[in-house]
Amino acid sequence: QLQLVESGGGLVQPGGSLRLSCVASGFTLDYYTIGWFRQAPGKEREGVSCISSSGERTHYADSVKGRFTISRDNAKNTVYLQMNSLKPEDTAVYYCAADLQRLFTVQAMCVKGGYWGQGTQVTVSS
Question: Taking a C-beta distance cutoff of 8 angstroms, is the pair 119, 7 a contact?
């Protein structure tokens, strides 16, 4: 069974950091562009950051540039999202997704999404 599992979310104070992990089971992440997305209550889903299969190409939403870093460790079948200088407006459920059909550039992946995980809650509050 194909599965993406996100972890690492939680409650953090403004200015703090979290590292999210997206682990794949039932398939190998190596071949696929992966994206991180988020959805806050009452808002549309937003593409946060995406990374190519090789890790050479990345894309970030303007709202997180300079604060978030996406990376991948294909040996661990895992993609990470390091989130620094967190703000209350970063509060959302964060999802990872895989472009299993290998259709998209990193930019397009951050718009379209793909095969989804179940999400992890990130709350930034004092």
Answer: no
